[in-house]
Specification:
The complex is a heterodimer of chains A (259) and B (313). With 259 residues, chain A is an alpha+beta fold. Chain A has two domains: 148 residues, no CATH class; 107 residues, no CATH class. Chain A is built from eight helices and twelve strands. In chain A, strand 1 and strand 2 form a beta hairpin. In chain A, helix 1 packs across helix 7 and helix 3 crosses helix 4. In chain B, 51% of the residues lie in helices and 2% in strands. Chain B is built from eleven helices and one strand, in the order H-H-H-H-H-H-H-H-H-H-E-H. Classes of the chains: A alpha+beta (259), B mainly alpha (313). At the A-B interface, helix 1, strand 1, strand 2, strand 11 and helix 5 of A face helix 7, helix 8, helix 10, strand 1 and helix 11 of B.
Chain lengths: 259, 313
C-alpha cells in the first residue's frame, strides 16, 4: 500500500465503470444517482452510492430483491468464482476494534437464518439466508473459522465477481432508511477531537483535519468526490421586495435602488 | 571492522537528529534504494551547493546522516559492503564540519527561510525523493496549455498531478514512487499545502465571497441548536464552494434530499470498497522499491498532456 496514486487511479476507473453500468440500466432505468467517496482511517477509498430508479422499475416485489441481492453462500461447485469472491470479501468478521459495542455487533451479525426474503417493519428487508449447510472456512491469524449464511453481507452476485472487491448492496424501502442513508453519506470528513474558540470556520476546518495519502492523491488528480444527478439548482427565495442586492462601493446609489 | 564502522555511522545521526526534525527516513526501507539515492546525493552535492548555497549543503548532509541511520538497521549484503568506502569518505567530510554549525544551519533552513511557496521546499523536505535537487512548485511556472485553467501559471494541483504522473524512465527517471511511506507523506503534504493555499485565499477574501450572506442566525441554529450567541458575531466563514466544508456538506445533503423528493425514493444503496490486492494495482507495484521503474500504464484516465505544460527541472 505504498502507492496511493495507483490505488486512487485504479479505484477511480472501477468506480466509473460501475457507474456506467448502472446508468446503462443494469438495475433498470435510472432516474437519479447520488454518491460520495470516503476514506477509511487507514486510507482505502470507498463509495456510497444511492440509486433512484424510474417509476416502472422501482423495486417493490420480493422476487426483484432476490434477483439483485444475495445474502447467502453460493454453491461452490456450480459457481466456483462467486464462491471464492464471497468468501474473500463478503463475510462479516466481527472484531472488537470495528463493530463490537457492549458485547454486540453494531451491524447485528450473525443474523438469524431466514428461509425467504421478508420485508421487515423497520424498512430493511430480511434477506434469505437458508440454513442449507453451506459453509466457508477461513483462516485469519492462524485461527480457522467456519462461517455459515448467518455472516454473509448482502451483495450483488455478478458485480463482486466482475469488480473483484467488497460491494455491499441493500434495498431502501422506508422513509426511515432514507434518513439513515443520507445521514450516513453526508457525515463529512473524519476528524479527530474538535475544539474551537470564537467563530473562525477556516480554522475550525483545519483543526484536527486529517488526510490519508489516497485521499490526497485522489484530490490532486481532481477526481470527483460527490455526484448529484440529476443536478439540483438552488433557487433563491425571498419575500416580496426583500431580495438581496449586491453592489460595489463605487456604484451609483440610484442605480442600486432600481435593482 | 564492519560492526565498528556501523557503530560510528549509527551514532552520528543521533546527535544530529536530537537537534533537528526527524524526516522519516526510516521508512525508506530498501537498502539498495537508500544506497543508490545516497550515492546520487553524493554526486550532486556540488550541484546543489552552486544553486542554493551553503544551507542546502548542510541540510543534504543531514539527510545523508539520516539515511545512514536507516541503513544501519538493515541487513547488509555484498553490494552494501562495496559501497562502504563511499560512506566512509562521506563520514570524514561530515566530521570536518563543526557539528554545531551544521545543526544551526539546518534549523534555520527548516524553520524560517523556506516558506511553503519556495521552490526548494519539497526538495529540502524530501531530499531522498529528489536526490538531484529538482525544484518544486513555485509561483512562476508558465502554463503552456491554457485550456486546463484560466491561470497563466501552473497551479499547485496541476503541478503535483504532473509529479505523480507515471512515465517511462527514459523521459523522466523518477524515483519518488519508490519512496515507500516517505512517498505517502509527500503526497499528503502536497495536498495539505494545496488546501492550505485555498484556505488562505478564503481567509483573505472574506469580502469577495460575501461572507455576510452566510450570517443568518437561522442558518446557525439549523446547524447547532446549542449555539452560544456570542459566537454569532461572525469572524471568518468557510464558503460552501470549498469542498468538504460543513456548508458544502449541508448543501449536498439538501440537494440529495431534493433529488429524493423528485425521484420518490431511493431503491438501492450500494457501498463499494477498494481492494488493495486488485491485480491492476499489484501488477503495477514496482518490484519492491526498484529504483528506476518502467511502467506501462494501462489506465486511460490521464488525458490532458501535462508533461509539456510544466517547465520544471
Amino acid at each position: 500500500m505504498d502507492r496511493p496514486d495507483l490505488v486512487a487511479h485504479v479505484f477511480y476507473q472501477k468506480q466509473q465503470a460501475l457507474l456506467q453500468m448502472i446508468r446503462k440500466g443494469y438495475y433498470g432505468a435510472v432516474a437519479g444517482l447520488v454518491y460520495t467517496i470516503e476514506y477509511q482511517k487507514r486510507g482505502l477509498p470507498h463509495m456510497h452510492l444511492l440509486i433512484f430508479l424510474e417509476d416502472e422499475d422501482k423495486i417493490w416485489a420480493i422476487e426483484q430483491i432476490d434477483a439483485f441481492i444475495s445474502a447467502q453462500i453460493p454453491d461452490p461447485i456450480i459457481h466456483p468464482q462467486l464462491y471464492e469472491a464471497v468468501s474473500k470479501y463478503m463475510v462479516h468478521n466481527c472484531s472488537p476494534q470495528r463493530c463490537v459495542e457492549n458485547g454486540k455487533c453494531k451491524k447485528y451479525f450473525p443474523k438469524s437464518f431466514c428461509e425467504q426474503t421478508v420485508m421487515k417493519d423497520d424498512g430493511y428487508p430480511e434477506y434469505a439466508r437458508p440454513n442449507n449447510g453451506r459453509t466457508i472456512r477461513k483462516v485469519i491469524n492462524n485461527d480457522a473459522e467456519v462461517y455459515t449464511n448467518e455472516r454473509v453481507v448482502p451483495h450483488p452476485r455478478e458485480l463482486i465477481v466482475q469488480f473483484d472487491c467488497h460491494i455491499n448492496l441493500e434495498v431502501c424501502a422506508s422513509i426511515k432508511s432514507i434518513k439513515y442513508v443520507h445521514k450516513y453519506i453526508y457525515k463529512g470528513p473524519d476528524r479527530a477531537t474538535l475544539q474551537t474558540q470564537g467563530h473562525d470556520e477556516v480554522k475550525a476546518y483545519l483543526d484536527s483535519r486529517y488526510i490519508s495519502s489516497v485521499e490526497a492523491a485522489w484530490r490532486l488528480f481532481e477526481f470527483g468526490m460527490h455526484l448529484e444527478w440529476p443536478s439540483v439548482y438552488r433557487l433563491p427565495v425571498h419575500l416580496e421586495d426583500q431580495q438581496s442586492v449586491t453592489y460595489q462601493d463605487d456604484e451609483d446609489a440610484q442605480q442600486v435602488l432600481k435593482k | 571492522m564492519h560492526s565498528c564502522t556501523f557503530m560510528t555511522l549509527r551514532r552520528l545521526p543521533i546527535v544530529i537528529l536530537e537537534e533537528t526534525h526527524s524526516f522519516n527516513v526510516q521508512s525508506c526501507k530498501s537498502c539498495m534504494a537508500c544506497l543508490q539515492i545516497f550515492i546520487h546525493m553524493f554526486k550532486y552535492t556540488s550541484k546543489l551547493t552552486k544553486s542554493c548555497g551553503r544551507n542546502l549543503l548542510s541540510n543534504t548532509l543531514m539527510f545523508m546522516c539520516n539515511c545512514i541511520s536507516a541503513l544501519g538497521q538493515m541487513v547488509y549484503d555484498t553490494i552494501f559492503l562495496r559501497q562502504m568506502k563511499l560512506l566512509q569518505s562521506f563520514l570524514e567530510m561530515v566530521q570536518k564540519q563543526s557539528m554545531r554549525k551544521l545543526c544551526s544551519a539546518c534549523k534555520v533552513v527548516v524553520s524560517k527561510e523556506l516558506a511553503i511557496l519556495h521552490q526548494s521546499y519539497s526538495t529540502l523536505h524530501y531530499v531522498l525523493l529528489f536526490p538531484q535537487g529538482e525544484e518544486g512548485w513555485h509561483l512562476d511556472i508558465p502554463l503552456q496549455n491554457i485550456r486546463v485553467t484560466r491561470s497563466k501559471y501552473v497551479t499547485q494541483t496541476l503541478y503535483y498531478a504532473f509529479r505523480l504522473h507515471i512515465r517511462p524512465p527514459e523521459i523522466d527517471p523518477s524515483n519518488i514512487f519508490c519512496g515507500g511511506r516517505l512517498f505517502q507523506q509527500y503526497v499528503c503534504s502536497a495536498w495539505a499545502s494545496v488546501e492550505q493555499s485555498k484556505l488562505t485565499w478564503v481567509f483573505n477574501n472574506q469580502k469577495k465571497i460575501r461572507s455576510e450572506l452566510y450570517g443568518g442566525l437561522q442558518d446557525h441554529l439549523a446547524q447547532d441548536p446549542n449555539l452560544d450567541l456570542r459566537d454569532t458575531g461572525r469572524s471568518v466563514v468557510l464558503p460552501s464552494s470549498h469542498s468538504e466544508s460543513p456548508h458544502y456538506m449541508q448543501q449536498l445533503l439538501q440537494d440529495s434530499l431534493a433529488i429524493c423528493h423528485d425521484c420518490k425514493k431511493p431503491d438501492l444503496f450500494l457501498t463499494m470498497t477498494a481492494n488493495p490486492t486488485w491485480p491492476e494495482i499489484a501488477d503495477l507495484l514496482p518490484g519492491k522499491y526498484v529504483l528506476f521503474l518502467y511502467l506501462n500504464f494501462p489506465l486511460t484516465c490521464i488525458t490532458t498532456n501535462r508533461s509539456d505544460s510544466s517547465g520544471s527541472t
